[in-house]
Amino acid sequence: MSTENTSQFAKPHIDARALLGLYDPADTTDWAPIRAAQVHAGGQLALFLLAANVIGAAMVTLILQRSAPLWALACWGAVVAAISVAITFRRLAAKQRGAATLAAVRDTVIEGIALATIWSVPPLAFGFNPDVGTALGLWIVLSVLMTASAVAMAALPLATLSFLGILGLAISVMVLRIAGPVLAASVALFTTLLMIGCFTRARSLVLIRSGEIALAERDETVSLLLREAKQDESADWLWETDAARRVVRASPRFALSVGLDPVGVNGKSLLEVLAGKTWDSGSFAPALRTLAENLKGRTAFRGLVLPVNVAEQERWYEIAANPRYDDHGAFLGFRGVGADVTEQRASADKINRMARFDTLTGLPNRLHVNEALSHAMADAEKWGSRCAFMMIDLDRFKAVNDTLGHPIGDRLLSRVAERLTTLMGANEVIGRLGGDEFAVVVRDASDTQRLETLAQTIVDALARPYDIDHHTLYTGASVGVATGPRDGRTTEMLIRSADLALYRSKDAGGGKFHHYEPQLHVAAEERRVLEQALRKALTNDELHLTYQPVVDAGSGRLTGFEALVRWTHPELGPISPVKFIPLAEDARLIAPIGEWVLRSACAEAAKWPGDARVAVNVSPEQLHNPGFVAVVASALANSGLPARRLELEVTESVFMRDDTGAVKVLERILDLGVRLSLDDFGTGYSSLGYLSRTRFSTIKIDRSFVISASKKVPEAIAIIRAVVALAQSLGMATTAEGVETEDEHLMVQELGCTKVQGYYFGRPLPVEEARVLAARAAQNREAA
Fold first, then answer.
1. I need a labelling partner for 116 at 20 to 30 A (CA). Which of 94, 323, 539, 563 fits?
2. Can you tell me the distance from the alpha carbon of 26 to that of 34, in angstroms, rounded to the nearest whole number?
């Protein structure tokens, strides 16, 4: 590289005002890292400066203890310590920064002035004592302190010079009054020499740092030149302009990159070369205008990406450059580097799209939806309007995945996305949050009626059947709607409100939409508290069992008990099973609780004399786990309870999944000798098919039919007769639940029910009372 080409790396001229932090020079030197080096150097000796100030204050106090009030010296020393500690903390906090602003250096003058002002108090307020020895001691201590400060604070010349100048003036005034002008002049000379030394040291630090920066830039340019010489197709290229911004000494790679001849490109305006055909039309890319401003302002730049049309193909180039000056500071032009980043930009665009759009449906993903909602909420707050957020959850989608497989499920999701897209206008953004959850951001939701119409339209559109791979699929949708800022002033709050409204829609059976209401949050909070408490209930031994008698309808003889779980919280008190059983199912806690109930009931029933059975309710989640068979076998083996004395009660919902997993589990349980009872028959999606496939021993008739039949409702009476006849034909017993009066007992007995359960024969009993009742029933049976 020639001497002319390297002249930009000559030792820089250091402006004294820039060194002091009084202004930011418009030359090629990057002062941010230089100022950071100044701050860092100031922080390195911060603890040394703190020690010097504290020790100096102690020595001054000892020297002046006979010349000044002790309380005044104590107050002064405390202020010195406080200011010194504050300065130390500021220096230590700032010394790790990689770049520092002009203000960061300039503001240190406050530290210097504050420190000098407090140290000027002893010579000005206490130093006019005729005791020459005291004044001499004070002079020596302050001179040592000034020297220490000049060493510790030299990197920050503005602060140091302020400190030395103010304190030196105060000492000179003291010495002038006590010893005359000669010694005062010597103090002033000493102060001046310290200030000159401090400034020289600070200038050396800046020269060293600026030299390191220049060396790094030179190494970078040499590296680029070496790559240029290799003629690597992927190499960067160099470019250079003169003071008039015309291309000079164009390298072959630069000429190739802009599609021009290496000789013909010289002398052309750099902006014209990069603008290509747009130069005449004036329709420049924004990045080209930015480049023009940098060239005009003679400011360094890097990382500027701009489009360039080469051979009718758009390419993207990233360029960087620094202005060049000769030894006399005259502007020579720019020298820079460039690189083709077209492929990297395409990859970045692809990655950005993948990060913001769902790959399956092509809809905006959760990140994109959250951004859209944030913008909508900001606009609503700015204009005093409303926005809205809708959460959409598909009904019965899991059944499609479980029965037909994930490929069909994915196609269904794509079809759902297509339908939703057709319903959206310019005012809405539809996206997929994940799984079978979608969301809609409504930018302007001022029209409540229009918002409700859109929600109902979504519900209706998604309820229509889908024809996919010769399958006609039916799924619906539940929608939760929240309006901002009324239902939430942040995106998180609004999404939470919409989610609560969605939960309300699904809890109501699905296929509808629901607006957020404040009481939903109260219910959700209560649910959250209960769930947290329920997770600890087993560990804390808060659950217990009660046992409700089941008797023979004709004789009234005890045949067994149904085990019922109860929860008593130490603070919340007794909690109804109506609340905590559904919560346990949703929170996936029903399996461990159900296993505890099974093992506890078996262990208790094993202690009863006679053949009284114990019935235990089993959830669908337990039966869809193949390992449940081993749990039943273990409970029987550990308790010693004969299998024939255990009866498991299942509901019709266990058969709702279109698979045979639960049926296989039930068959294996039956093979153990355990009896099965079908609970709440007739209240769900009743089917005679599973009655024929599964060997139930008992059908339980729900209390709702018993109540209706007692009121002479013909349909209820007919249903009970039909269930009894069906059970008799299949060799099954029938148990009427919820019998509370003698009339109800006589009625179900007349209708043919074989067993009865209800308050008429006994409420759920504590363990001790159930044992007594079982023992009495066993004695009566033996006596008979």
1. 94
2. 15
Long-range contacts of 411-414 (CB under 8 A, 24+ apart): 411/468, 411/469, 412/466, 412/468, 412/473, 412/475, 413/360, 413/361, 414/360, 414/361
At 136, list the tokens.
């001499």
Count CB neighbours of 421 within 10 A.
13
Predicted local confidence at residue 228, as pLDDT: 43
Angstrom CA distances, 678 to 29, 164, 654, 705, 725, stand at 87, 96, 10, 15, 15
DSSP secondary structure of 91-148? HHHHTT-S---HHHHHTHHHHHHHHHHHHTHIIIII---S-HHHHHHHHHHHHHHHHH
CA triplet 668, 671, 672: central angle to 5 degrees? 100
Q: Report yes or no: 708 and 716 within 8 Å, Cβ to Cβ.
A: yes
Sign of CA dihedral 714, 719, 720, 725: positive
Higher pLDDT, 99 or 613: 613
The DSSP code sequence of 416-447 is HHHHHHHH--TTEEEEEEETTEEEEEES----
CA distance linking residue 697 with residue 204, whole number of Å: 99
For residue 515, give every residue at least 6 positions away whose Cβ sits within 8 Å of its Cβ, in sequence order, or none.
Answer: 481, 482, 483, 501
Residue holding tokens 């749990």?
A: 631
The reported pTM is 0.48
- C-alpha 614, offset from chain centre: 49
Distance between CA atoms of residues 441 and 314, nearest Å: 35
Dihedral pair phi/psi, residue 239, rounded to 5°: -145, 155
Q: Sign (positive/negative) of CA torsion 671, 643, 690, 630? A: negative
Return the H-helix or E-strand segment holding 398. Answer: helix 397-404
Q: Both tokens of residue 315? A: 């390419």
Say which range, 120-129, 183-192, 282-291, has the weakest mean pLDDT.
120-129
Look at residue 495 in the predicted model and tell me its pLDDT: 94
Per-residue confidence band for 508, with pLDDT thresholds at 50, 70 and 90: confident
Please give the single-letter amino acid code of residue 227.
R
Query: How far apart are alpha carbons 780 and 96 in whole angstroms?
Result: 89
What is the average pLDDT score of the chain? Answer: 83
C-alpha closest to that of 679 among 522, 534, 775, 564: 564
Task: At 433, list the tokens.
Answer: 């949050």
The amino acid at residue 375 is H
Quick one: average pLDDT of 591-597?
94
CB 723 within 8 A of CB 734: yes
Sign, Cα dihedral of 182, 184, 188, 194: positive
User: pLDDT by residue (tens digit) across 235-246?
Assistant: 477 888 888 888
**Residue scoring higher pLDDT (125 or 704):** 704
Place of tokens 């050396």: 204
Other CB atoms closer than 10 Å to residue 64's CB: what's the count?
23
For 637, other C-beta atoms within 10 Å of its C-beta total 11
At 229 the pLDDT is 41
